[in-house]
Design goal:
By secondary structure, this protein is mainly alpha-helical. The chain has a single domain, classed as Four Helix Bundle (Hemerythrin (Met), subunit A) (Up-down Bundle), CATH 1.20.120. The chain is built from nine helices and two strands, in the order ααααααααββα. Strands 1-2 form a two-stranded antiparallel ribbon. β1 and β2 form a beta hairpin. α3 runs parallel beside α7 and α3 runs antiparallel to α9. The longest helix has 27 residues. It is globular.
Length: 170
Amino acid sequence: MDEYKDVILSGLEECYEGIWNKVEDLTSEELRWIPSQSSNDIQWNIWHIARVEDRWINQRMKNSQELWIENNWYKHFNLKKIDHGNGDSIIKVRQMPNMELSDLKNYFEEVRKITIDYISNITPRELNNIYIAKNRSQTGIWILGHLLVEESQHLGQIAFIRGMMKGINI
């Protein structure tokens, strides 16, 4: 009766693979290219997806330290512990340092490994728990559904930006 776990993990894996398929041949300049002055770039989107997953799974659902902090990724990327992208101004997005794609992928892989393990072993009780974040509360079901939606949306942004640079079927 754990097929729902397979559905969630399959969706997350499709997003994850889609990200790396879209960016594996991009230069560092292309990863930072913006279609307009009020747009995010591909690097920011990848970083934000990883940060969102790290926060929702580790901080909220597991009530543990984010890998961003625990493994000093924030220092590695020369950012702050609290940086995650939600609500960032376009000025802050532009000030983000350049990141090596391999380093970004290593951080995301660490996060994803924890996510897969957690979801593979999640209980119905944990799915129905109420998780409080600031002044909001959500169930585990909502969090995992939101994670799928958010990652899909940002993958779409990555594909769109790539398409603007390289054309659609490249």
